[in-house]
Design goal:
The complex is a heterodimer.
Chain A lengths: L2 H30 L2 E4 L3 E7 L2 E7 L2 E4 L6 E7 L4 E6 L12 E2 L5 E12 L2 H6 L4 H18 L3 H5 L3 H18 L4 E12 L5 H70 L1 H17 L3 E5 L1 H6 L2
Antiparallel strand pairs in A: 1-4, 2-3, 2-5, 6-8, 7-8, 8-9
Helix pairs in contact in A: 3-5, 6-7
Chain B lengths: L1 H20 E4 L3 E7 L2 E6 L3 E4 L6 E7 L3 E11 L5 E12 L2 H7 L3 H21 L16 H19 L2 E12 L5 H70 L1 H16 L5 E5 L6 H4 L6
Antiparallel strand pairs in B: 1-4, 2-3, 2-5, 6-7, 7-8
Classes of the chains: A alpha+beta, B alpha+beta.
Chain lengths: 302, 294
């Protein structure tokens, strides 16, 4: 007995086990190669012989028939993707970097479009590069919208409308072409007049606020002056009625005095008349410079 | 030993025949089956398909997805002789593989053909319109989208008929004036802004002046009304007073005349008055005639 004989002996005993193991193990491994997992932000697309049979496999562990019957692609679908379109940055030479508005003015535009994959199967199969097509659609849509708008509303009140309309337009184009994308938002990053004539636009904004200020100021002045005038009016009216009351009261006083005096006078008219006359005379003549002239002497003077 | 070799060779041939008669068609592609170089049928449904083994039937695989083709910027002239630079893109896909293969063979030839087709259609469409119909504020005759819809439709007809291609869209991604025209446009925009700013300022001054004048008028009106009212109040009170006096005095006219005259004298004569009286005046009779009989 030597070592070689030992190995041969052991091999002979183990061989059925090895062969059996391989015959079981290989189909087993082939079978479990169909397990796959879909991540939290992903969806799976299952294809059988190249044909999409399931396109919304939810996150978790799943099984598909092993290669070459079925295969799986997973795509991050819920994550928002961002597409930036800056017209002035990507202008070809020889062409204006701005967009032309409906009144043939020029504006600078940069947009941010957010989207995600809503139908992974279509996303994979409908277009060679859905995102490049989306970028072109954004440019065409922006061009169309700006080309039909006047510059003033576009720069001021029309921004929200622009964003909404562009979003709807993009979504319907994307749906028409079955790109499998969902546009979640369109944001304006930049929408302004060309840099070289921006001061002129700023001056218009300034003029507009100056106009408002002038009107506000004169309206404020108007309120103050009207309030003052109303105060003045009620002062004049009060003064007049005070004066009227005075006049009336004075008259009443005079009348009462007169009547009272007359009542007394009526009792003994003759002596009262004398008394009144003399008393009054006394009062009158006291301050007066009095010259008494003899009629005989004075008649002799020239 | 020889028998084993023969059976092995037979197995290999069988495997080859089986493999070449099975076609797996992915969603992104379509397969053209050709019989000795002659296209016989197209398979555009994804999945498993069968054919006669090579070399009886062979296959050509074509991409059926939408393809994006960028068209180079070109300078065009509108009907009213304005220059425009247009750059556009096209989205297309193969719909008829047989026609595609006979007329174009491959994607790059297709792109050259489609490029020239689209450029000539765009040029013709722009040349047929004045610029005011391209850039316009009127929704009804807004033409940019409609122009390119027409371009797409007519290019699509040609492409479907002759090339086995469907053109989904030709749309502009740049549409504007050549750079040498920009300065004039900037100047025009600037002067227009100046005009608007001046108009705003003038309007502001005008409205402020109007408000001020209106205020002035209202204030004066209020004051005049107040003056009128006060005069009328005072007048009424004076009339009432006068009636009172008249009522009282009319009953005792004689006494009134007497007392009123006396107080009038008192008012009239004061410190600065010099009064020359005759010694004969009855006033001084007592003063100048000593009492008698004492």
């Amino acid at each position: 007995m030597n070592a070689t004989d030992d190995i041969r002996l052991i091999y002979r005993q183990v061989r059925p086990l090895l062969v059996g193991g391989i015959l079981i193990l290989i189909p087993f491994l082939y079978g479990i190669s169909g397990f796959y997992s879909v991540g939290a932000e992903e969806r799976g697309v299952v294809m059988r012989f190249g044909k999409v049979i399931r396109e919304q496999v939810l996150p978790g562990m799943h099984y598909h028939l092993p290669w070459p019957i079925e295969s799986v692609r997973t795509l991050p679908t819920t994550a928002l993707r961002t597409l930036e379109v800056d017209f002035s940055g990507s202008a070809p030479s020889g062409l204006q970097p701005e967009l032309t508005t409906g009144d043939e003015d020029l504006v600078n535009v940069a947009l941010l479009v957010q989207y995600n994959i809503s139908a992974p199967g279509r996303y994979l199969s409908s277009a060679k590069s859905p995102e490049a097509i989306l970028e072109q659609l954004v440019m065409a849509g922006t061009l169309g919208y700006v080309g039909s708008s006047a510059i003033d509303p576009l720069l001021t009140v029309g921004r929200t409308r622009f964003q909404n309309q562009l979003k709807n337009h993009l979504q319907s184009s994307v749906d028409d072409w079955q790109l499998g994308l969902r546009i979640t938002s369109v944001q304006i990053r930049r929408l302004e007049p060309p840099a070289s004539i921006k001061p002129a636009f700023d001056d218009v904004a300034r003029a507009r606020s100056e106009k408002q200020k002038l009107i506000q100021e004169s309206a404020g002045e108007r309120n103050t002056r009207l309030a003052q005038a109303r105060g003045e009016v009620s002062r004049i009216r009060e003064q007049a009625s005070a004066e009227a009351t005075e006049t009336l009261e004075t008259a009443l006083g005079h009348r009462d005095r007169f009547l009272a005096n007359w009542e007394a006078y009526k009792q003994s008219p003759r002596i009262t008349r004398q008394r009144l006359y003399l008393e009054r005379l006394e009062r009158i003549l006291t301050p007066v410079e009095l010259i008494i002239a003899d009629p005989a002497t004075s008649s002799r003077q020239p | 030993m020889k028998k084993t070799l023969w059976s092995l060779a037979l197995a290999l041939v069988l495997i080859f025949v089986a493999a070449s008669s099975i076609i797996i068609v992915p969603e992104t592609q379509m397969v053209m089956v050709t019989q000795l170089g002659r296209p016989t049928r197209a398979i555009d449904q994804a999945g498993l398909a069968f054919k006669w083994p090579d070399p009886i039937e062979t296959t050509v695989t074509l991409d059926k997805r939408q393809q994006l083709l960028s068209l180079a910027p070109t300078e065009l002239v509108t009907r009213d002789r304005r220059n425009l630079v247009v750059s556009a893109f096209m989205v297309w896909r193969i719909t008829d593989p047989a026609a595609f293969l006979t007329s174009l063979r491959n994607i790059s030839t297709a792109e050259q053909r489609l490029d020239s087709l689209a450029q000539s259609e765009i040029g013709a469409a722009v040349a047929a319109r004045p610029i005011t119909q391209i850039f316009t504020l009127n929704d009804q005759d807004f033409q940019l989208r409609r122009i390119f819809q027409e371009v797409t439709d007519s290019a699509n007809q040609v492409a479907q008929r002759e090339l086995g291609i469907e053109i989904l869209a030709i749309q502009p991604n740049r549409f504007g004036f050549p750079k040498q025209n920009l300065l004039a446009i900037y100047k025009r925009m600037e002067s227009e802004r100046d005009r608007i700013a001046r108009q705003y300022r003038a309007e502001g001054q005008e409205q402020a002046a109007t408000i001020r004048a209106e205020t002035q008028r209202e204030v004066r009106q209020l004051q005049a009304q107040a003056a009128r009212e006060s005069q009328s109040i005072i007048g009424k009170s004076e009339a009432a007073a006068s009636r009172l006096y008249a009522e009282a005095y009319e009953t005792n006219a004689d006494y009134y005349r007497f007392t009123r005259s006396l107080s009038a004298y008192e008012q009239m004569l004061g410190q600065d008055t010099r009064l020359v009286l005759s010694a004969d005046s009855p006033l001084f009779r007592l003063l100048l005639t000593p009492p008698e009989g004492q």
